[in-house]
Design brief:
The protein has 331 residues and is α/β, with parallel strands linked by helices. The protein has helices spanning 2-7, 61-68, 91-95, 113-123, 129-139, 155-167, 185-200, 212-218, 235-242, 258-262, 286-299, 314-321, 326-330, and strands at residues 21-32, 35-46, 50-54, 76-81, 84-85, 98-101, 173-177, 204-209, 221-226, 228-233, 245-251, 268-273, 279-283, 304-310. Helix 5 (129-139) packs across helix 6 and helix 6 runs parallel beside helix 7 (185-200). The two termini are 30 Å apart. The structure holds adenosine-5'-diphosphate and magnesium ion.
Length: 331
Amino acid sequence: MTSELADSQHQPSSGGANLGSALVVEHLTKRFGKRIAYEDVSFEVGYGEVFGFLGPNGAGKTTTVRTLGTLIAPTSGSATIARIPLSAESGPAIRARISIMPESPGLYLRLTVAENLECFARLYELRDVRSRIDRVLQAVNLSDRANDLCGSLSKGLRQRVALARALLSDPTVLFLDEPTSGLDPVATRDVHDLLIALRERGVTIFLTTHRLEEAEKLCHRVAILNTTLRLIGRPDELREQLFSRNLEVRTRLQLDEPARVFNGLANVESWEQSPSGSYVLNVTDPDTAAPDIARALVHANVDILSMSESHHSLKDVYLELIDEDVEAKKR
Ligand SMILES: Nc1ncnc2c1ncn2[C@@H]1O[C@H](COP(=O)(O)OP(=O)(O)O)[C@@H](O)[C@H]1O
Ligand SMILES: [Mg+2]
């Protein structure tokens, strides 16, 4: 199943010429002594794609970002970032083409927003510092806070300053490590809106998160990591491939002997009664199963109120895969 999904082709939403992949990762592994941070991870990210790297705490997300961001060397495997092969020598060339927004913003709290950005712009040896700062502040809707001390800003606003800093260099690939972790719902929504705007502009984003709804909302494709890569695909694909399909049947009255009605139907693999009293039938193909079920219920003199296909959420997919406590296991 994993390989089928891994083969599924991504079509960048921005269209245009096929310029290869922004990230190519092959059999990448990182160990710290005996501890495995992540193992045998392979995936590709297209230009203009927002790629979600989803996994629980300790899954290896940050370590992957740090590896692809050339901050630490992998133990084995290979990667190409913005078409540059990752090696001991290629660090500066790769770093010139990417930005990383780390989990904690890391700003100078006693400097203003503009001073922070200026400081980093000079560190990155960028030109046109003024106009760049104006542009990134506009991109994160913080133009009117340029002269506020970073120390006086809320966590959500600091996160937006950190995003502005990551945008200063016009990166080919933008790495965002848990960009909304610890933010309240309003600040989270604001960051999501900014990321959606970047996505619409065709910015390539590698986004780690442990929040399912974030991955589903923002990402073209999602990889689920739990030390090894468990699954990769579009959110809707993941749902479809991982779960068999269900039909939910509501009847006017409870069935006296549901097993007599449902057992033995050719297209029904299993069934159960939901807490709300409806019957959820696991079927091979809803289109052929539904008429059989309807006939069987009519034959049993039961009134059908509704019959509908029920969908699994990405949460179901995730919980199915992340059913163990990785962090504890590694200790
Ligand atoms: N510098 C390090 N030294 C030793 N172990 C590390 C180091 N960095 C990360 N790890 C371990 O690697 C695993 C993955 O960590 P991390 O990449 O931070 O996970 P995530 O970002 O998904 O929460 C964890 O078990 C963590 O303890
Ligand atoms: Mg992390």
